[in-house]
Specification:
elongated; membrane; ATP hydrolysis activity; single chain; about 375 residues; four-stranded antiparallel beta sheet; NIL_domain; binds adenosine-5'-triphosphate
């Protein structure tokens, strides 16, 4: 539904050129909720603004719903569009946008704000009113139609912003840090609303955020951006199945100090109904091993249960090839951590943290050993 190919954006300022996007290739499938995460300055806003051509990319292409928007834009001087072409304007109507600070008009009522894009689309007063009330009902705000934004909570303002974004019946919704200004409870309810709309309307949602919890609670897929590049991307299960994935580590941080070179540390990821713990006790019994559980995390990602566990086996990797093979045979995803020197930091924290959004290691207490 959304494809960017070699997308680059360079801001030319008086003093220097700033490369905000450096060859971004992204593919968001129809009906997907796709989260782009990264630290401040990574290029997330530039990406989302280039997707709907609010910013003109310096090079590369953007295709939304089969239309190459970059080809529809007429370039003006210094890369700025002179004016959107009618074709670009029409294509943009299939893209809704939700902003961090809501961008509501304080002089208009809630209904008046939702009606604004409908006026631009040329609907009659009666049609506008009917449609706006329908949209307000969809976001749970039918009773606030006549109220001005100043009398709404942050979450309610964002719901109005979402209703307004849906006015043109878009196929794609772009969300620029839509929950960053909201408290955790309100964040959860707005994310639930976005997820419901995604499912009810088969809406494709591209959201940018700096919060891993946002990705974890609603996204089917995610990309990690750094210095204008996508450094990792995929569906959440794919990321969890990728050895060494930074996103997987940040989504499900595992704690636990690894004991040293005479120990083998293994990260186990399990999905859905597979539970690791009985497998670990079976392993312990079958191979007469003292298995230590260093850390564990159970959570849901995009509505599916996912768990991770870090265990430690006595002996080097060479001594544990057979038990590790046994774990793999159980259908669990296994990642063996590189051996560490006794005084060295755990391998995971040595490679950590890309986003700095969550601790990668040392977050939880070591659990007792599994009984043999
Ligand atoms: N209009 C602009 N003119 C010049 N430089 C800009 C402009 N917009 C963004 N930049 C620069 O481009 C880089 C990427 O910025 P961008 O806002 O896309 O990142 P971001 O990941 O969204 O960050 P944040 O989370 O802080 O919004 C930064 O170095 C920023 O300073």
């Amino acid at each position: 539904m959304i494809t960017t190919t070699d997308l680059s954006k360079v801001y030319r300022t008086k003093d220097r050129d700033i490369t905000a996007l450096d060859g971004v290739n992204l593919h968001v499938a129809q009906g997907e909720m796709y989260g782009v995460i990264g630290q401040s300055g990574a290029g997330k806003s530039s990406l989302i603004r280039c997707v709907n051509l609010l910013e003109t990319p310096t090079s590369g292409s953007v295709t939304v719903d089969g239309r190459e928007l970059t080809a529809l834009a007429r370039r003006g001087s210094r890369g700025r569009p002179k004016r959107p072409t009618p074709q670009l304007r029409a294509a943009r109507s299939s893209i809704g946008m939700v902003f961090q600070h809501f961008n509501l008009l304080s002089s208009r009522t809630v209904r008046g704000n939702v009606e604004l894009p409908l006026e631009i689309l040329g609907l009659t007063r009666r049609e506008r009113s009917r449609k706006a009330l329908e949209l307000l009902d969809l976001v749970g705000l039918a009773d606030k139609a006549g109220v001005h934004p100043a009398r709404l909570s942050g979450g309610q303002k964002q719901r109005v912003g979402i209703a307004r974004a849906l006015a043109g019946e878009p196929k794609v919704l772009l969300s620029d840090e839509a929950t960053s200004a909201l408290d955790p409870e309100t964040t959860r309810s707005v994310l639930r609303l976005l997820r419901d709309l995604n499912q009810q309307l088969d809406l494709t949602v591209l959201l940018i955020t700096h919060e891993m919890d946002v990705v974890k609670s609603v996204c089917d897929s995610a990309a990690l951006m750094r210095d204008g590049r996508v450094v990792e991307s995929g569906t959440v299960p794919e990321l969890l199945a990728t050895p060494g994935s930074e996103l997987a580590r940040e989504l499900f941080p595992l704690g636990g100090e690894v004991g040293g070179p005479e120990r083998t540390a293994v990260d186990i990821t399990f999905h859905g109904d597979t539970a690791a713990e009985p497998v670990v006790s079976r392993l312990s019994r079958a191979y007469d091993l003292d298995v230590s559980i260093l850390g564990a995390a159970m959570d849901t990602a995009a509505g599916k249960q996912v768990g991770r566990m870090r265990i430690e086996l006595p002996g080097r990797y060479e001594d544990n090839v057979v038990p590790i093979g046994y774990l793999r045979e159980q259908g669990l995803q296994i990642e063996v951590l590189p051996a560490t020197e006794p005084a060295a930091a755990p391998a995971v924290s040595a490679a950590a943290p890309a986003t700095g959004l969550a601790p990668a290691a040392g977050a939880s207490e070591p659990a007792p050993e599994v009984a043999k």
